[in-house]
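[agent] plan:
  1. take the single chain provided in the ticket
  2. run structure prediction with default settings
  3. attach structure tokens to the ticket
  4. add a short note for the reviewer (M.T.)
[agent] executing step 1
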Amino acid sequence: MAEQVDYSGQFGDVTAKIRDIEQKQKIMKDRIFLIGENLIELKDRTEEKLLGIKKDVEIMKQNLDRLSSFLGTVSGEFSKFAKKEDLQILTKQAKMFQPLDFVRKSDLQR
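[agent] step 2 finished; step 3 output follows
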């Protein structure tokens, strides 16, 4: 007489373990999907910020070029201005020749 072995308890444990593993796999799949979506959103935001930074850098380059051009023009014009020493000489000469003072002094001496 063959003994009948009850495998239902063992298969039940295996079935429960398989369900647990499937559920964990589904949860992992959902998490990976969410992580992927977040990475895509992060990439898009980063690209937008990078484009903004590139535009700002381009504007800064244009402003720097304009400033360099202006400074070149201004520095070229500085050579046309009188130097401090030249102004001092002219001031001394103007003080030496003051016709009104000359006339007043000569009137006082008479």
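[agent] step 4 note for reviewer: The chain is about 85% helix and 0% strand.
[agent] ticket updated
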